[in-house]
């Protein structure tokens, strides 16, 4: 198992991660990503600010984290964890933590002062994971998801 930047060879396996989860598609669509290979590649290469996808892979992608600059969201010196996910059958083995650590380290080295993320308030695992890494809730986003659940905006200040 290794963590590396997403390559073109990873793309099919990476995009498969989202087929497991309807709300994941919604998260990515909010960031302007269609979960189809060519459209995804084009969006990555024309993203309005810096963006990185790190994957955890063996013979396939087991999980990934996507982090981007947040200047375009009026959050200077900040980065947004757009998405973090691990295949269902590979959860609870520390992989989510490894990927989050990689993304935070990358942001720190880039001089980012604050990292934010948005998680469904129903997502106990996600909230606990970010909390464990020092993220604190700072805002509730009412009716953020299609099914009407609220989201929690969380931040970590370096
Ligand atoms: C959230 C997610 C990324 C966690 O990945 P993971 O590899 O299972 O996480 P780890 O094994 O590194 O666990 C780290 C911490 O997360 C929390 N956690 C993970 N799964 C949990 C669960 N099912 N219930 C409660 N807490 C959980 C715990 O605090 C855990 O620390 P601990 O083991 O010391 O208790 C994974 O559940 C996932 O892909 N969920 C769907 C996508 C998602 O919700 N992403 C987050 C919002 S973008």
UniProtKB/TrEMBL annotation:
GO MF, one annotated term: N-acetyltransferase activity
Matching InterPro entries: Acyl_CoA_acyltransferase, GNAT_dom, NAT_camello-type
UniProt domain N-acetyltransferase: residue ranges: 1-158
CDD domains referenced in this protein's UniProt entry, alphabetically: NAT_SF
SUPFAM superfamilies tied to this protein: Acyl-CoA N-acyltransferases (Nat) (SSF55729)
Keywords attached to this entry: Transferase
Cited Pfam families: Acetyltransf_1
Matching Gene3D superfamilies: 3.40.630.30
Protein name: N-acetyltransferase domain-containing protein
Organism, as annotated: Candidatus Marsarchaeota G1 archaeon OSP_D
């Amino acid at each position: 198992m290794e963590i590396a930047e997403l390559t073109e060879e990873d793309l099919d396996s990476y995009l498969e991660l989202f087929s497991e989860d309807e709300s994941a598609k919604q998260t990515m669509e909010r960031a302007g990503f269609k979960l189809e290979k060519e459209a995804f590649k084009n969006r990555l290469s024309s993203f309005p600010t810096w963006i990185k996808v790190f994957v955890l892979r063996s013979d396939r992608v087991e999980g990934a984290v996507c982090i981007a600059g947040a200047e375009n969201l009026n959050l200077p010196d900040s980065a947004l964890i757009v998405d973090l996910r691990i295949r269902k059958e590979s959860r609870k083995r520390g992989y989510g933590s490894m990927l989050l650590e990689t993304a935070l380290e990358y942001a720190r080295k880039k001089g980012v002062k604050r990292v934010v993320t948005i998680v469904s308030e129903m997502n106990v695992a996600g909230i606990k994971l970010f909390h464990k890494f020092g993220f604190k809730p700072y805002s509730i986003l009412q009716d953020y998801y299609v099914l009407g659940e609220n989201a929690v905006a969380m931040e970590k200040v370096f």
